[in-house]
Amino acid sequence: MEQQSTVGVLRAAREKITDPNKWTREYSARNADGVGVDPLDPEAVRWCALGAMRVVNPNGCIVGSPYEALTRALNPGSADGIADFNDHRTHEEVLALFDKAIAAEEKEGRV
After folding, report:
1. 53-60 own/partner pairs: CB under 8 Å, 24+ apart
2. What are the tens digits of pLDDT across the range 32-64?
């Protein structure tokens, strides 16, 4: 599998959870019954921000550029990590975090 660009991973992960019915909190992923599952489980139908990144880039999403880009997009001085942000913010705020990270990466030429 070819390595995706940072912006490519961020865009694909954002797209995976654009529909609020495909986004979740408190688990990386859930199946149709709402049970927490591994993000790569074929029965997963809903993902958190990190789970979505893992699905679109299974060979390196938890560490590396996409994760770091999303972390940089968090408000400076925030005690929230990506998982906390996902679990305690609205769906719209999570999508906006992806948008902020994508814009910052593009501005810096880190595509």
Report:
1. 53/9, 53/10, 53/13, 54/28, 55/13, 55/16, 55/29, 56/4, 56/9, 56/12, 56/13, 56/16, 57/3, 57/4, 57/9, 57/12, 57/13, 58/1, 59/1, 59/3, 60/3
2. 999 999 999 999 999 999 999 999 988 764 545
Residue the block writes with tokens 């770091």: 68
Domain count along the chain: 1
| Domain-located, residue 1 | no
Amino acid 23: pLDDT: 98
